[in-house]
Amino acid sequence: MNRDHNPHLMHIIRQAGGRLPVALIRESLTEGEAHATEMAFIAAIGRERNGGPLVNLTDGGDGQVGWIPSELTRARIRAANTGRKVSDETRAKMSAARKGKKKSPEHAAKIGQSRKGKKADQETLAHLTAIRRSPEWREAARQRALAQHKAMTDEQRAARKARISAATKEAMAKPETASKVRAAAVENYSRRERTPEGRFA
Known about the structure:
Layout: H1 7-15, H2 31-45, H3 71-81, H4 88-98, H5 105-115, H6 122-132, H7 135-151, H8 154-172, H9 175-191
């Protein structure tokens, strides 16, 4: 065990003479069932961070759900990653690992809050723009949209259409938004290729 991983737990183990009691709760579980059981017990008893007696750093299961690193840990991670470039192969593996995983509303809210007021630099914006204009990205986005549309009921489709319509009307009522839309339309129009007869390709 890494002694720096959970110093509180190491202190408890030392006080117990180097060993902790072990209780067998369930047997012959799959990995998923074991993770679910662990998370259920931790949630029922309660972590110290949430007012309970347990010193677990996470909510249990597979991964680091519920782990909140200390400022010292954050500083170490930042220092270790500074100047490090991620290879395309590693990026692909990270992307594949994240696919299909949905963030909880609380997690999404925390991410949104942490990004408020932060602006991406021009290099990052240019990189993102290039990605979103690529045929691969557009095709993937189209497939995602089709899959979402097929999964909806008629009522959900109608409600979604109404929300989009209302949001569009509200946005277009603002002069600055209407101006941006017109400018984008003019730019797209000028980029379209024409046939020798003068028609759009």
